[in-house]
Design brief:
The protein is of the alpha/beta class. It has six helices and ten strands. It has a seven-stranded mixed β-sheet, sandwiched between helices. Strands 1-2-3 form a three-stranded antiparallel β-sheet. Strand 1 and strand 2 form a beta hairpin. The termini are far apart.
Length: 213
């Protein structure tokens, strides 16, 4: 008998149609529209991994009543799942993807969540203390999925993570290793924070981090 190849544990059931995918998390169907206009408007595998981890580890990472920030929210799936799990979430990304992001988030959370998620523009490393002063903006969790790939803003991303990760904040970062720069960023990430590996499946890794201060 031919042996069946099982997909990784983080792969969800997906019902694909032209222009959209339907994912299933937290007992809900989540309809996501993608766009080929931007990397940020396409679904990436670490978002699926992080959503599955959050859905299946609700005691280990309890998001109920927590204030959450997502960096590089893209299509909004992680924000949607965190909202369905009871968090008050702010999804952030560059201005050019906010339209699709906001539409996906609102479509899938309206009348389903206690807290209405917010969608805001955020450029990594740019005027952070002016636009998001730490005296005002404090988060229990900072979530990020597949924000490390072949781009020129990895230093700014790390600066942004450090800006938002204050005492009492936990960063959860999911990433699929593709390039040498991913490994370099991972080492810098470990040097910047107290880190632990929450989950690993081949090149897919989910890290948890807290500040060193």
């Amino acid at each position: 008998m031919e042996q069946q190849v099982r997909p990784p544990a983080w792969v969800p059931g997906i019902n694909s149609r032209i222009g959209r995918d339907v994912y299933h998390y937290t007992g809900q169907d989540i309809v996501i529209h993608e766009s080929i206009d931007s990397y940020g408007a396409v679904m990436w595998p670490a978002a699926l991994a992080l959503c599955s981890f959050l859905d299946n580890n609700r005691k280990k990472v309890n998001l109920q009543e927590k204030v959450v920030l997502e960096l590089g929210a893209g299509t909004g799936l992680v924000t949607i799942v965190a909202s369905l799990l009871g968090a008050s979430v702010t999804a952030t990304d560059l201005p050019d993807v906010l339209g699709n992001l906001r539409a996906n988030v609102m479509r899938n959370t309206r009348e389903r969540c206690r807290y209405t998620p917010q969608v805001e523009a955020l450029s990594w490393g740019h005027d952070l203390e002016t636009t998001y002063p730490t005296s005002v903006y404090r988060y229990d969790y900072v979530l990020a999925a597949d924000v490390v790939y072949h781009h020129d803003f990895l230093d700014e991303l790390l600066v942004t993570m450090k800006h938002f990760c204050k005492p009492g904040t936990t960063v959860i970062w999911a990433n699929k290793v593709r390039f040498e720069t991913d490994l370099t960023f991972t080492e810098n990430f470990k040097n910047a924070f107290h880190t632990s590996l929450l989950a690993e499946d081949g090149e897919m890794k989910i890290f948890m981090a807290t500040c060193r201060e």
